[in-house]
Design a protein that fits this description.
- By secondary structure, the chain is α/β, with parallel strands linked by helices.
- It has a single domain, classed as Alpha-Beta Complex (Spore Coat Polysaccharide Biosynthesis Protein SpsA, Chain A).
- Helices cover 33% and strands 22% of the residues.
- The strands form three sheets. A five-stranded mixed β-sheet has the order 3-2-1-4-9, sandwiched between helices. A three-stranded mixed β-sheet has the order 8-5-10.
- α1 packs across α2 and α5 crosses α6.
- Bound molecules: cytidine-5'-triphosphate and magnesium ion.
- Its EC number is 4.6.1.12, 2.7.7.60.
- One of its GO terms (molecular function) is 2-C-methyl-D-erythritol 2,4-cyclodiphosphate synthase activity.
Length: 227
Amino acid sequence: PRVAVIVVAAGSGTRLQAGAPKAFVGLDAQTILHHCLRGVFDARSAQVVIVAPEERVGEALADAQDAAGERRDLVSVVAGGRTRQESVAAGLAAVWPDVEIVLVHDAARALAPAALIDRVVAAVERTGWGVVPVLPVVDTIKQVEGETVTAVVDRSQLAAAQTPQGFRRDVLGAAYRVADTEYTDDSALVAAAGHPIATVTGDQRAFKITTPDDLERARSLIGAPRA
Ligand code: CTP
Ligand code: MG
């Protein structure tokens, strides 16, 4: 099937506090966006849509073409919106007509490997369902109200969601057309529209760079000798 990956990179990175929109912060000589796109271009896809802050569209295009190498014809860049959901909608509007499967991926998950992306595509192909990569929750989780623990939560029923999340293009498009509130992720938005969601095994390397500590972790991971 023809696959498009929408990479949302239009956030400001307020929690990272790194002096530039998060996707444009350097990990080494290359940006977070560039590292994310390396994984994306190593996976099977027909189109890669990058959603960037309006004033960074040109910079994102140059960075993406550099990361794409021979595959630069696959690259589109569009301006994002005020919320992640608006940014995904902007990316969706730029997906080519013949695309059948759409993945939505956070640029901030800079080290997500190509194998994870291919695994999500394969699961959408196999099931026709929405697909979310998940990892088990390792911490014991408490339900709290103020400073009081109000309930025990069964950790075995919980999973932490990552991206890329994958969908049939018609399903994702229809779900975005009817969405009337902000959802925490695309699989929640698609589920709210009545579509089933399946999981695949996520990857530790697909963690989201959110805080300065996460940035340090990503930097040390790429500096470490390869196994
Ligand atoms: N994103 C986006 N458009 C927005 C908000 C977020 O494209 N209006 C993207 C971010 O660029 C990021 C992904 O959605 O790749 C996940 O969002 P998050 O980690 O929250 O990034 P930011 O919103 O940039 O960070 P913060 O919430 O700390 O400001
Ligand atoms: Mg945010």
